[in-house]
Amino acid sequence: MAKSKSFFLILILGSLAALGPFSIDMYLPGFKAIAQDLNTGVPNVSLSLSSFFIGISAGQLLYGPLLDKFGRKKPLYFGLALYILSSLGCLLVTSIDQLIVLRFVQAIGSCATAVASVAMVRDLFTVKESPKVFASLMLVIAVSPMLAPTAGGYLIAALGWQSVFVFLSFMALLMLLACIWWLPESYKPDPTYSLKPKPILSNFLLVLKEPGFYTYALVSAITFSGLFAYVSSSPVVFMDLYQVTETGYGWIFALLSVSFIGFSQVNSIILKWFTSKNIVFWALIAQCIFSILFLSAALNDLLNLYTTIGFIALFLGCLGFINPNASALALAPFSKNAGSASALMGALQMGLGALASAVISLFAADVVWPMPAVMTIAALIALFCLLIGKNKIRPVSANQ
């Protein structure tokens, strides 16, 4: 594939994959304003984040079969249209319950872009090329935490929290037009693919039986739950405990994203000398060490704003190594069922992310330690899954 064409495809696919993170991150600085306008507390507003995680997890299971039956573009159009309508609906809410429900619907729409973008990487690039392409996607995706909270903070300060959802609607509309005009259909629709529950479940079970999938999909999803623990608790930790302003919070979020971006791009370079399997293993070891030190410092009251930022940056840097390689390795065994495999992997990521977010919300809002506790548990469980599953994995041709 020509480099210029490849770059343009990666840019579109990365933008699609970034819609979900933008939807998560951009309204975070507005939690206090939303709580005041809707006469509720910040912990209740955080439930709209949990409902988004649940929606994007469940919705990906819906879109997987649709992408395999109808091709990639038609389900993508539907998802983007649903996202636009629900985003506009968020402008009109008068209660936190309405916002929670509409965020769930918004997530159902956005997960079409998440599943389709990952599946299309598997359609358009070989197993050997995929880790580098996923790392490039991570670059586009990781820009969203740099831009979204910062832009959201300024938008909310100037125009109110509703302006975030106006921006997201416009962003999704531009993506829809780009998909219609420039994104190729990468998968021939399969009219024989059944959408009845039994065949769909059988197909998902077939994917889950593949050792390469369940090992690396679990590693990716479990470590990602640590990321969501950070995202869901960061407004309280930074703005309440450390008294950071809305715009200052946005800049901290952007700064922390640099480690995620930087290490995911370093990953593309070191793939010349190390295999994806080795990178995942050693990055997980490092992530376990950093998260344990973070938790120990939190429990002994040794943290301040700067050390907290430093430990989170180290955790996210390891994730920048783990996620692109684990995603590529999880999808490597599949060519025919890449849509279903992508959906399952995304559902695992977002489902565990919702769980991590919900767990964080159970603890008192005046302590830091729940964040590193969830990060530590996630890293240790992911390492355990890798050690148990890696010996069962069958080799896959790099040119497949």
TrEMBL record:
GO annotation, biological process: xenobiotic detoxification by transmembrane export across the plasma membrane
Family designation: Belongs to the major facilitator superfamily. Bcr/CmlA family.
Cell compartment(s), UniProt: Cell membrane
Membrane-topology descriptor: Multi-pass membrane protein
Domain of life from the UniProt record: Bacteria
Major facilitator superfamily (MFS) profile domain segment(s): 9-394
Protein's recorded name: Bcr/CflA family efflux MFS transporter
Main location: membrane
Residues passing through the membrane, by range: 45-64, 76-94, 100-121, 133-157, 163-183, 213-231, 251-270, 279-299, 305-322, 343-365, 371-389
Database matches in InterPro entries: Efflux_drug-R_Bcr/CmlA, MFS, MFS_dom, MFS_trans_sf
GO molecular function, one term: sodium:proton antiporter activity
Keyword annotations from UniProtKB, A to Z: Cell membrane, Membrane, Transmembrane, Transmembrane helix, Transport
Signal peptide bounds: none
Stored NCBIfam families: efflux_Bcr_CflA
Pfam families documented for this protein: MFS_1 (PF07690)
GO cellular component, one term: plasma membrane
